[in-house]
Design goal:
The chain is an alpha/beta fold. It contains 13 helices and 19 strands. The structure holds cytidine-5'-triphosphate. The site of cytidine-5'-triphosphate has 14 residues, from helix 11 and strand 16.
């Protein structure tokens, strides 16, 4: 993918052992199409050599504001003017303190003060330094000044301790940067999403579920978050990490059964868009056994079923009276795709129903979609689920 095609990124490195991850980061930013210019503090050069970063980016690395290679000798102005974003990784406690205060006594702090473009910082430090109230104060100030802060995360640290302050991995920083550049078409909107399968217990060890992996719903959650929305994700049993978890803006509720999903959705209906992506069980077992059902020679156990609520149809009913949320359903069919999807859309009374085209896409990373609206249909060509989700979000943002 070329998600960062043509973007100019000034990658500024301050001192910290996490600098080793930035070599990989520079490479992956370039692979996504970005132009990367590296600037390093003196301290950073003790952890990673400028030669390494120059070889990876194919551009000379800047370390001093007095660098005579810049014709007008104003490296700080030149470098910040050429960038679409400044990305500081690793961002030390010291550098974040300087930026929060507006100090400018070396190349990177001066570039930041002189910048006209947005700034992303990726903190990396020992846990006591991160927990220190001065650092917390500085991070809060940076956020107030519209600086994006990616991470840190918790884990084992180079100093031998364990805790908060560890820099994100290169692939997570890349995801954060790509997210940063997505159009903010749902800024300030609330999006509610159900994803994954549900599980209906038969006894304490057995149950009925389905093949949904949750990938499509989780991809929509990521795309909605990237678009600036506040996202509520209600997930059935699946093993997926919450997307962009380090950004901390998706609220996730894990449920097991359709009844639990129904209750969770109804308690969070105050939203602008509802994506009903989950494969919800239509029936639950009425006579759940409190004990494990034993094999018996007298025949197979008899299960009694009762109907679960149709969550999407219920939300659609509410939305008619309160005029929100905009409801989007999903359908997987085995035959007569367009006809079944049109009928389902009308029956559930939702403005949009999205159907998977082709054979089962459960568990796959790619999909092809048929979008059914009142009296019209359109297709989204085969692509990975995140890319399709971004297209869907863009489409829906024009309808609300
Ligand atoms: N859905 C729901 N609650 C249910 C069943 C389905 O919210 N109890 C939602 C799904 O999340 C999906 C849409 O309805 O967005 C279509 O689901 P699907 O399983 O394809 O359709 P059903 O209504 O269950 O109809 P059928 O199983 O007969 O095809």
């Amino acid at each position: 993918m070329n998600s960062l095609q043509g973007k100019k990124i000034l990658l500024a490195m301050s001192g910290g052992i996490a600098a080793f991850k930035v070599a990989e980061l520079a490479r992956s930013l370039i692979q996504e199409g970005a132009e990367v210019q590296v600037a390093m503090s003196d301290a950073a050069t003790h952890f990673m050599t400028p030669v390494t970063m120059q070889a990876l980016t194919g551009k000379p690395v800047y370390i001093s504001q007095w660098d005579a290679r810049i014709p007008n000798n104003m490296a700080h102005i030149e470098l910040s003017r050429q960038a679409d974003v400044i990305l500081i990784a690793p961002a030390s406690a010291d550098l974040m303190a300087k930026i929060a205060l507006g100090l400018a006594d070396d190349l990177i702090s001066t570039i930041c003060l002189a910048r006209e473009c947005p700034l992303i910082v990726v903190p990396a430090m020992n846990k006591q330094m991160w927990d220190n109230s001065a650092t917390q104060r500085n991070v809060a100030q940076l956020q107030k000044d519209s600086v994006s802060v990616l991470g840190p995360t918790s884990g084992s640290q180079a100093c031998g301790e364990n805790g908060m302050g560890r820099m994100l991995e290169a692939h997570q920083i890349l995801e954060g940067v790509i997210a940063f550049f997505q159009p903010k078409v749902l800024q300030g909107k609330k999006v509610l999403i159900t994803a994954g399968p549900t599980y209906e217990a038969i006894d304490p060890v057995r149950g009925i579920t389905n093949k949904s992996s949750g990938k499509m719903g989780f991809a929509i959650a990521q795309a909605a978050l990237e678009a600036g929305a506040n996202v509520e994700l209600i997930a059935g049993p699946c093993h997926l990490d919450t997307p962009l978890e380090f950004a901390g803006k998706i609220t996730r509720t894990n449920i097991t059964s359709a009844e639990e999903m129904h209750a969770a959705v109804m308690s969070k209906l105050d939203c602008d868009v509802f994506f009903s992506v989950a494969a919800v069980a239509d029936w639950r077992i009425k006579n759940i056994s409190a004990e494990k059902i034993k094999k018996s020679s007298s025949g197979s156990p008899s299960l009694e079923f009762e109907m679960n609520a149709d969550i999407l149809a219920e939300v659609a009913k509410v939305s008619q009276t309160k005029k929100k949320p905009y409801c989007v359903g999903f359908a997987a069919e085995t035959n007569d795709l367009e006809r079944h999807t049109q009928e389902k859309r009308a029956k559930k009374n939702v403005p949009m129903l999205v159907a998977n085209i082709g054979p089962s896409t459960f568990g796959l990373d790619e999909n092809e979609l048929l979008i059914i609206e009142d009296g019209k249909s359109s297709k989204l060509a085969k692509s990975d689920k995140l890319n399709l989700s971004r297209q869907l979000i863009s489409l829906i943002s024009k309808k609300i």
